[in-house]
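note to self — DONT lose this again. spent like an hour looking for the file last time. sequence + predicted structure for the chain T wanted, 247 res
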Amino acid sequence: MCYDVAYLTKKIEYYEKRFNASYGNIPFAPMYHSNGFDHMDLPVITNDEPSTIQMYSWGLIPAWVKDPEKAQKIQNQTLNARDDTLFEKPSFKHAAQHRRCLVLVDGFYDHHWKDQKSFPYYIQRKDRESFAMGGIWEIWRFKEMVRHTFSIITTDPNERMAWIHNRPRASEGPRMPFILNPKEERKWIDPTLSPQEVQDLIKPLPQEYLSDHTVSRLRGKAYPGNVASIRDSVTYQELSTQQGSLF
């Protein structure tokens, strides 16, 4: 799954050029590590405004949710949307057809398990470029409240990500976020795509495009917080015989 990401760690001008979109006057704050359950705002480009980078809250709230309490509960359950049920689940099917977006990140984190202990990895493009994850979005309204939210789509993992994400929920199997090839980013937010064309785009990014390394703890007392050094490589002796990387 994908619950931890890094974004906006470079200059605004970089993102505007990389994604051919304007950032506007939104407050800019580097996030070297963000946990999805905090429901932070992440930069997205939607099919409705393809020339603008906007900030949407992570965790999709369907338009049909009737009250804030239920909205908060469902948002904890919609950080990710599986590709194989995208057009089946009530929370996702309308957005999958009509409201797709690019979620702009610099990297993401996942955990590998060994001997009942978890070890965090930071995964990024091998060329260090920022990239877009495929997402879906919605607008939720309650009285005077208006919230723009999104989910990140997950798919089957490539070989390396299957090794890293080796302790999924039993019913799910290993997953990885749907990372778009730059040449297909704009196609993902093309509003004319059929459901089959949408599904055909979703596939794991081959492992040769990615690199990974172990980093500091993302939870508990050892967590350093939202600091640039959280992405620095850390060696765990427990993994010394198997650690490896994609560098």
